[in-house]
C-alpha cells in the first residue's frame, strides 16, 4: 500500500502566474521511497494519487501588504489607484514599508502617468505624508479594511469548479484545481491555498487512506517590472538603413548574449539571506529569466549555471518556440544531493534563421587535469594534484555557419563560420592557479580550432576573474607577466615555466574596445567604466562582492566591434554599495519587484560593416530596477554578464552590449 510520507512546497508564498509544484514523497509497503508522480494514468501497486487544490476564503479576510504578504495592510497608495495600477500592489503594512517602496511607486506612476499627474502637488504630498511632514491624508489612506471592502477591492473569487465547502470557522473552500500543479490567478490574491492529495484504489476509485494536506501563505500579485529610464548618448549620424522598428541594420552583423542565470541549487536562503524566500524560488525566477532572455532577441545566447533538468524541461523547449536551437554541456560531477538533474552546466542557443550548427566540442577540465597529472606530476603527489585541479568546470565550444553574408561577388560561396566558446571558470578565490590553468587550457584548445579553419572566435562566460588578474591578463593581453602576483600561488608547479602562459589568438575584450572607440560617451557612461582597465566597474554586485567577472572576448582581426552600450544604473558604484545592502531586506523590498531584470538593456543602433569607426547616437536605458527589458534588433551583438538573481538578490550585474561585424 502506498502512503504519503511528506509534502513540501519550494516556497510557501504563492505568486500569481508562477506554477506551484508540490514535492510529494511516497512510501511503499516494502519501505522503499519514491518521488515520481503516481497519477491516474501511471498507477503503482494498483493505486494512484488524487490531487485537489482549494482557495480558502475567510469572512475575516483583509487586504495584505504588497511587500510583506504575511502582514495586514494599513496603508494604500492612492496614486496607484488613480493610475489604475492593480489595487493589490497599492497596499502597505506601515509608513516605513511605503517609504521604502516609494521610488518603485513613483516609477509605476510615471509609467501610468495619466491619473497621477492630474493633481500638481500630489506626489509631494504623498512623500511628505510618509515622512511625517504633512498632516493631511492626501495620497495615502490609513485603512483597517473590512471583509466586504477588501473583497470588492481585491476582486471577488471566480470558482473553476461549482462545489464550495463551508467550514465551521467561517472559511469557505473553493476547488480550483485537480492536478498536481497549480498556477495561482488574480482571483487568488490575498487568499490561502490548500493542496490535498490522497491515495486512491485504481479500480474502485475510492480513497484508501486519509488525505494529506499542506497550506500556503496568502497569494501575492506578481511584482511588476519597473520601466527603465533612458540616458541619451550623443554622437554624429551614422550610415546605414533603419529597420521597421527604427534601428539601423546591416548585413553581416549578429548579436550574442552571455548570462550567468544562477542555478537553483545555489540560490539558497543561506547565500541570499537578504532576499525573501519566494523570490529565490525557481518557479518565480524562471519566468523573469525567460522574459529577459527572449526580450534581448540575441542571435546567439550563452548561459552559465543552467541545471540539466531546467535545460531539458524549460529552456530548450521554451527557447525553441522563439526559433532557437539548443546545445548543452553538463558539469562532470553531481552537486550536493547526488541528483544528476541538479548538475548545472553551460548552454548555448542560436537562432536557426541566422546560423546552422557545424560542430560541437566539449571541454572537461577534469579530464585535462587527469592528463596533466599523469604527464608532469610525480606519483606521490598525484592525489594531491587531482584534489586541487578536479573542480568539475566545463566549456562548450560550438562552430556555427552564418546563413547571412556580407561578402561581395569576389567571394561567392565562401562559408561564414564563427566559433563560440561558452565557459564558467572555477569560482574559489584561493585557487588562482586553477583558474589560470583552466583559462589557459581552454585557449590552447581554441588555438587548435582557429589554426585548422581560420575561424573568428567569441569567448564568452563567467570567468570569476577581476580585471588585471592573471586569467584576465592572459585573455586580454595574450600573456601573463612573470612577476604577476597571482603566479606566486602555484603549489603544484603547473604554471611553470611562466613563458608558456601565452596564446596567439587576437582576442580583445568587448568592453575595453567599446570604452576606447566610443568617443560619444557622456559622463554617465564613462563613470560606469574603470579608466585603469577600460572594463566595467562591476558586472557582479552582491552584499559581499562588487566587481567585474564576466566578459566577452572576440577575434579583432576578423570581427569588428560595431557598437556598444554603456552600463546603465540609477546610482554609481559607491552609492550602490551604500544603499543596496546596508538595510538588508529593506532594499530588497524595492528590488524584489524586478528579480532577474537587472541586466542593462538599451535600445541599440549599430553601424554598417564598412564604417566601424563612426560614432553612433541613441538613447540607452536601464536601471537596477529596470523592467520590460529587451532589445528588438536582430543585427547586433549584445554582451551581458552574470545577472544571477537580478536585483532581488542584490546581484545587480551588468555588461555592455556590442555589435560585431564579420570581416571579409
Model description:
One of its GO terms (molecular function) is RNA binding. InterPro entries: CCR4/nocturin_mRNA_transcr, Endo/exonu/phosph_ase_sf, Endo/exonuclease/phosphatase. It is found in: Cytoplasm; Nucleus. The protein is of the alpha+beta class and 664 residues long. The chain folds into three domains: 3-61 and 153-218, Immunoglobulin-like (Sandwich); 75-144, no CATH class; 230-662, Deoxyribonuclease I, Chain A (4-Layer Sandwich). 22% of the residues lie in helices and 24% in strands. It has 16 helices and 30 strands. Strands 20-21-22-23-27-24 form a six-stranded mixed β-sheet. Strands 8-9-4-10-11 form a five-stranded antiparallel β-sheet, with no helix packed on it. A four-stranded mixed β-sheet has the order 16-17-19-18, covered by helices on one side. Helix 9 (365-376) runs antiparallel to helix 10. The longest helix is centred in the middle third of the chain and has 22 residues, at 432-453. The protein is globular. The termini are far apart.
Short description:
One of its GO terms (molecular function) is RNA binding. With 664 residues, the protein is an alpha+beta fold.
Give the overall shape, derived from the CA principal axes: globular
**The CATH topology of the largest domain:** Deoxyribonuclease I, Chain A
- Given as residue ranges, the uncertain stretches (5+ residues, pLDDT < 50) are 119-160, 229-249, 564-658
Number of domains: 3
* N- and C-termini, Cα separation: 70 Å
Rg is: 27 Å
- CATH-derived architecture of the largest domain: 4-Layer Sandwich
Put simply, the count of helices is 16
GO cellular component, one term: cytoplasm
GO molecular function: metal ion binding; poly(A)-specific ribonuclease activity; RNA binding
Keywords: Cytoplasm, Exonuclease, Hydrolase, Magnesium, Metal-binding, Nuclease, Nucleus, Repeat, RNA-binding, Transcription, Transcription regulation
Family: Belongs to the CCR4/nocturin family.
Amino acid at each position: 500500500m502506498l502512503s504519503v510520507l511528506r509534502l513540501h512546497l519550494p516556497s510557501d508564498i504563492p505568486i500569481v502566474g508562477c506554477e506551484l509544484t508540490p514535492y510529494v514523497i511516497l512510501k511503499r509497503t516494502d519501505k522503499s521511497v519514491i518521488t515520481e508522480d503516481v497519477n491516474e494514468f501511471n498507477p503503482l501497486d494498483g493505486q494512484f494519487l488524487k490531487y485537489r487544490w482549494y482557495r480558502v476564503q475567510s469572512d475575516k479576510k483583509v487586504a495584505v501588504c504588497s511587500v510583506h504578504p504575511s502582514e495586514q495592510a494599513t496603508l494604500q497608495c492612492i496614486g496607484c489607484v488613480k493610475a489604475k495600477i492593480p489595487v493589490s500592489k497599492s497596499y502597505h503594512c506601515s509608513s516605513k514599508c511605503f517609504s521604502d517602496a516609494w521610488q518603485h511607486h513613483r516609477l509605476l506612476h510615471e509609467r501610468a502617468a495619466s491619473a497621477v499627474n492630474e493633481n500638481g502637488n500630489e506626489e509631494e504630498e504623498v512623500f511628505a505624508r510618509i515622512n511625517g511632514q504633512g498632516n493631511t491624508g492626501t495620497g495615502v489612506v490609513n485603512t483597517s479594511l473590512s471583509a466586504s471592502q477588501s473583497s470588492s477591492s481585491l476582486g471577488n473569487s471566480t470558482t473553476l469548479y461549482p462545489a464550495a465547502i463551508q467550514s465551521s470557522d467561517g472559511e469557505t473552500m473553493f476547488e480550483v484545481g485537480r492536478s498536481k500543479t497549480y498556477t495561482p490567478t488574480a482571483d487568488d490574491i490575498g487568499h490561502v491555498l490548500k493542496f490535498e492529495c490522497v491515495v486512491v484504489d485504481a479500480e474502485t476509485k475510492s480513497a484508501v487512506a486519509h488525505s494529506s494536506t499542506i497550506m500556503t501563505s496568502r497569494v501575492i500579485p506578481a511584482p511588476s517590472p519597473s520601466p527603465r529610464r533612458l540616458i541619451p548618448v550623443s554622437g554624429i549620424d551614422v550610415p546605414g538603413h533603419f529597420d521597421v522598428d527604427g534601428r539601423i541594420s546591416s548585413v553581416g552583423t549578429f548579436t550574442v548574449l552571455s548570462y550567468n542565470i544562477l542555478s537553483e541549487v545555489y540560490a539558497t536562503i543561506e547565500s541570499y539571506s537578504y532576499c525573501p524566500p519566494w523570490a529565490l524560488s525557481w518557479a518565480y525566477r524562471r519566468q523573469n529569466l525567460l522574459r529577459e532572455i527572449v526580450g534581448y532577441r540575441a542571435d546567439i545566447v550563452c548561459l552559465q549555471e543552467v541545471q540539466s533538468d531546467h535545460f531539458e524541461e524549460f529552456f530548450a523547449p521554451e527557447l525553441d518556440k522563439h526559433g532557437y536551437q539548443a546545445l548543452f554541456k553538463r558539469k562532470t560531477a553531481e552537486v550536493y544531493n547526488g541528483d544528476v538533474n541538479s548538475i548545472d552546466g553551460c548552454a548555448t542557443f542560436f537562432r536557426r534563421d541566422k546560423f546552422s550548427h557545424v560542430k560541437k566540442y566539449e571541454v572537461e577540465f577534469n579530464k585535462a587535469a587527469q592528463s596533466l597529472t599523469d604527464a608532469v606530476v610525480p606519483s606521490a603527489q598525484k592525489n594531491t594534484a587531482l584534489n586541487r585541479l578536479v573542480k568539475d568546470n566545463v566549456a562548450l565550444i560550438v562552430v556555427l555557419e552564418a546563413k547571412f553574408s556580407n561578402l561581395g561577388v569576389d567571394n561567392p560561396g565562401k562559408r561564414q563560420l564563427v566559433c563560440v566558446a561558452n565557459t564558467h571558470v572555477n569560482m574559489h578565490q584561493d585557487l588562482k592557479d586553477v583558474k589560470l590553468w583552466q583559462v589557459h587550457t581552454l585557449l590552447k584548445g581554441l588555438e587548435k580550432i582557429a589554426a585548422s579553419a581560420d575561424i573568428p572566435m567569441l569567448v564568452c562566460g563567467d570567468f570569476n576573474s577581476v580585471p588585471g588578474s592573471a586569467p584576465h591578463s592572459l585573455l586580454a593581453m595574450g600573456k601573463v607577466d612573470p612577476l604577476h602576483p597571482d603566479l606566486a600561488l602555484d603549489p603544484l608547479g603547473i604554471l611553470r615555466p611562466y613563458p608558456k602562459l601565452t596564446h596567439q589568438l587576437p582576442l580583445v575584450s568587448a568592453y575595453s574596445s567599446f570604452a576606447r572607440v566610443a568617443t560619444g560617451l557622456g559622463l554617465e557612461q564613462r563613470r560606469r567604466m574603470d579608466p585603469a582597465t577600460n572594463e566595467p566597474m562591476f558586472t557582479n554586485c552582491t552584499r559581499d562582492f562588487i566587481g567585474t567577472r564576466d566578459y566577452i572576448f572576440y577575434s579583432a582581426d576578423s570581427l569588428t566591434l560595431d557598437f556598444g552600450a554603456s552600463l546603465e544604473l540609477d546610482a554609481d558604484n559607491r552609492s550602490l554599495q551604500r544603499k543596496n545592502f546596508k538595510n538588508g531586506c529593506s532594499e530588497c523590498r524595492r528590488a524584489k519587484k524586478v528579480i532577474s531584470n537587472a541586466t542593462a538593456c538599451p535600445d541599440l543602433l549599430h553601424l554598417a560593416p564598412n564604417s566601424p569607426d563612426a560614432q553612433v547616437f541613441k538613447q540607452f536605458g536601464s536601471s537596477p530596477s529596470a523592467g520590460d527589458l529587451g532589445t528588438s534588433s536582430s543585427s547586433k551583438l549584445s554582451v551581458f554578464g552574470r545577472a544571477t538573481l537580478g536585483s532581488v538578490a542584490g546581484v545587480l550585474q551588468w555588461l555592455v552590449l556590442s555589435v560585431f561585424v564579420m570581416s571579409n
